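Progress report, Aim 2. The chain analyzed during this reporting quarter is listed below.
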Amino acid sequence: MLTIAIEGRGRSPAHYSIQDDTTHELTSDESKELMDPTATKGTGGWQSLFSSLQNNFNKATGIITLTAKQRAQIYQYYHYSSGGFQDKLRRIFRRNLPHLFAS
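Predicted structure tokens for the chain:
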């Protein structure tokens, strides 16, 4: 079933998904990158996304649960521009979500 991951507003398009929550096992390097405390310093959309990703990560098992909304946000932030945040997302998720990073 097609669901709305992020509702569109104004010029921003809606993002849809055919999956609900997905689980992904992260390597130790990916886990360290995800749990980097500097990623959540400050306030804003990027920091909110990263906080929610950290909250959905089980440190004991190394498994992260991603909602459709989080996957859509990862896609949006990655394709917004290039820089440090985009590189961080690629280092964490490119093995599990390669389709999000294809140009």
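The radius of gyration is 13 Å. The mean pLDDT is 84. These observations will guide the mutagenesis work planned for the next reporting period.
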